[in-house]
Amino acid sequence: MKKSIIILAIVSSLFAQENITPATEEIDINNSFITKYEYGKMLFNNPRGIGCNNCHGDDARGKKIVDFKHTINEHTTNNKKEFICSLVAPDIKYVDYEIFSKKVNSKKNENLKFEKDQVCDKLIYQANVMPTYFLVEDEIEAIYYYIQNMK
């Protein structure tokens, strides 16, 4: 009987404490079950489908994705001109945050002009290989934080 009374008193005192946070108060994000680093790592590896690591590498230092050949038929001379191109994901480990944030959700600039000899650059740009993830600022910050602090 005494044990029941003691247990009841302990439980009652727990409910009486002011540490219980009403649902209407803001919750401190730093007390989350996942750290900013872990959240960033999760997003880096799978933000919404294809992870950043698939193209930029597990270390975010970029890597070659593919080499390809593009042939142009010159109508005036009936000659074929071949271009050997490489699609390379850039190093994002040492990019400033402003540039990183801007590039993550950016769209193609349809007005961007290329010189006649920039065939590979134009093809890669028009292919728009970088997926659009529609990330919010907190997600971009978490990915950037992870990249900057990865071992």
UniProtKB/TrEMBL annotation:
Cytochrome c domain location: 35-151
Keyword field contains Cell inner membrane: no
Protein's name according to its UniProt entry: C-type cytochrome
Highest taxon of source: Bacteria
InterPro entries from the UniProt entry: Cyt_c-like_dom, Cyt_c-like_dom_sf
Organism: Aliarcobacter cibarius
Molecular function in Gene Ontology: electron transfer activity; heme binding; metal ion binding
Lineage of the organism: Bacteria, Pseudomonadati, Campylobacterota, Epsilonproteobacteria, Campylobacterales
Record's keyword terms, sorted: Heme, Iron, Metal-binding
